[in-house]
Every structure is written in structure tokens, then in C-alpha cells.
Design goal:
Layout (H helix, E strand, L loop, with lengths): L13 E5 L15 E2 L2 E2 H9 L5 E5 L14 E2 L9 H15 L5 E6 L9 H5 L9 E6 L2 E10 L3 H10 L5 H6 L3 E5 L3 E3 L2 E3 L8 H15 L4
Parallel strand pairs: 1-4, 1-6, 4-5, 7-9
Antiparallel strand pairs: 2-3, 6-8, 7-8, 10-11
The chain binds guanosine-5'-triphosphate and magnesium ion.
């Protein structure tokens, strides 16, 4: 009797951490922010590593910290601070080089320390994922930088960045087949925490520190 070959486990995608912005509201590079004595970048790498095949960091200026050893640093392939989509394009170009068979590349933002530890598992379980952008949502909002992007649309993205005036991530996603993947709030003693809470200002950094403390406190 013929035995069915076991299905190969799904390949983990290459990932790029987006930290290529100017951090102007924070006033210093966001990748180097310290939360509970460790850089936010360390928190992000730790959460990401078990979920992906490789990690690189998209950065356009000195982050002001010692970077984790062995982490490739990628400046935007289209220099000029064209916004987050320039980071996504850089991620796609990088994936085509380091993982030529990967259909998608994952992006995450460096300023969002509580993102789900099942981010990749759930984004990749979208039916008929091939050719689609799978983006995370929570509380009725899209988090378009937490997404799996088809590497095959890199040229389209580059043309869009070169010609579109507004460079909105959501507008680019709307041009392509996409899927929304909803993530629940994290329950804490102080109420629900959005896993995509992101840090733009010094005040939000203090808020994130308080949330981290609540997450570490044992439940009553
Ligand atoms: N590669 C690249 N990434 C960018 C650019 N602008 C923003 N980003 C990234 O996009 C994500 C969301 O951007 P923001 O939260 O506004 O971060 P930011 O632009 O550094 O901060 P502000 O200057 O305060 O707006 C962050 O991960 C940024 O690093 C850019 O011009 N190039
Ligand atoms: Mg910005």
C-alpha cells in the first residue's frame, strides 16, 4: 500500500525589523529605547526569533546602541526617507537575496514590544496566502507594518514609491489582494492591552514600561 509522504512543515519566513524612520517625536532612535533594562530591539528580536527563518534590521542612521551580534543592518534601497513603505521594499529586496524560495517576507516595527508570539503562525494560516498581503489587525484597526508581504510585488512597490505622492501603507495594500488577521487583546490586571501598542513619544515609553511591569507581576 502506498504511504502518503508526510507534509513538510511550513517554512518560517525571513523577517525584517523596521527601524528606518527618524524617531522625531521621540527625539532619539527608537530601536535603542530601554524597557526594563534591555533595549526594545532586544525585546523584539527575542519575540521574533522563534517565529522566523532569519532576522535583519532596517535602519538609516546610527541607533546609538550596540546591535545584537550577527544582525544584518539594511539601509533603505531607495534612500531619502520615503516612509515605512521604503522599509517594506528594503525587506522584500533582502528576502529575495537571502531566501530566494520564500514567497513572503515578514515585517514588524521596532516600536511595538508586545506583538503576539503567534504572529507568524496566524498570519501564515490565511487560506490561499500565495500572492496575498496578510496584515495584522486588533480592536478594529489594521497594523500594516505587521504583515507578510509577497516578495513578487517588490517592483510594483518600488514604482509606487517613486510615483505616489502620499505613500500611505494602507493605500498600497489596497492595490493588492490582502487578508486581515485579527488578534485579541492581552489580558492584564489593569485591563486589556493592545498587542500592537506602539511607542512614539517619551510618554508612551513610560506607559509601555508600566504595561511591562503589569505583565511581569504575578496574577493575584
Ligand atoms: N525604512 C524606513 N522606515 C521608516 C521611514 N519612516 C518611518 N519608518 C518606520 O516606520 C515605522 C512607523 O513609523 P513611525 O512610528 O512614524 O516612526 P518614525 O517615523 O521613526 O517616528 P516619527 O519621526 O516620530 O514619525 C517605524 O518602524 C519606522 O522606523 C522611512 O523613511 N524609511
Ligand atoms: Mg513617522
Amino acid at each position: 500500500m502506498a504511504t502518503k509522504a508526510p507534509e513538510a512543515p511550513p517554512k518560517r519566513p525571513p523577517a525584517v525589523i523596521l527601524a528606518g524612520g527618524r524617531s522625531s517625536r521621540m527625539g532619539r532612535p527608537k530601536a535603542g529605547l530601554v524597557l526594563h533594562g534591555r533595549t526594545i530591539l532586544d525585546h523584539i528580536v527575542e519575540r521574533l526569533a522563534p517565529q522566523v527563518g532569519s532576522i535583519a534590521l532596517n535602519l538609516n542612521a546610527d541607533a546609538g546602541i550596540d546591535l545584537p551580534p550577527g544582525l544584518p543592518v539594511l539601509a533603505d534601497t531607495l534612500p531619502g526617507y520615503f516612509g515605512p513603505l521604503a522599509g517594506v521594499l528594503t525587506a522584500m529586496r533582502h528576502a529575495a537575496e537571502v531566501a530566494p524560495h520564500a514567497a513572503h517576507v515578514l515585517t514588524v516595527a521596532t516600536d511595538t514590544p508586545f506583538f503576539p508570539d503567534d504572529l507568524v503562525g496566524r498570519l501564515s494560516s490565511v487560506p490561499d496566502l500565495e500572492g496575498k498581503i496578510a496584515a495584522a489587525w486588533s480592536a478594529g484597526e489594521m497594523h500594516p507594518l505587521f504583515a507578510l508581504w509577497p516578495v513578487a510585488i517588490a517592483d510594483d512597490l518600488e514604482a509606487w514609491i517613486r510615483t505616489d505622492a502620499k505613500l500611505r501603507v494602507r493605500a498600497f495594500i489596497a492595490r493588492h489582494p490582502s487578508a486581515a488577521v485579527d488578534f485579541p487583546m492581552i489580558a492584564t490586571k489593569a485591563g486589556p492591552l493592545d498587542p500592537f501598542f506602539n511607542i512614539n513619544t517619551p510618554e508612551q515609553l513610560r506607559e509601555a514600561e508600566a504595561w511591562l511591569q503589569r505583565l511581569k507581576d504575578p496574577k493575584p
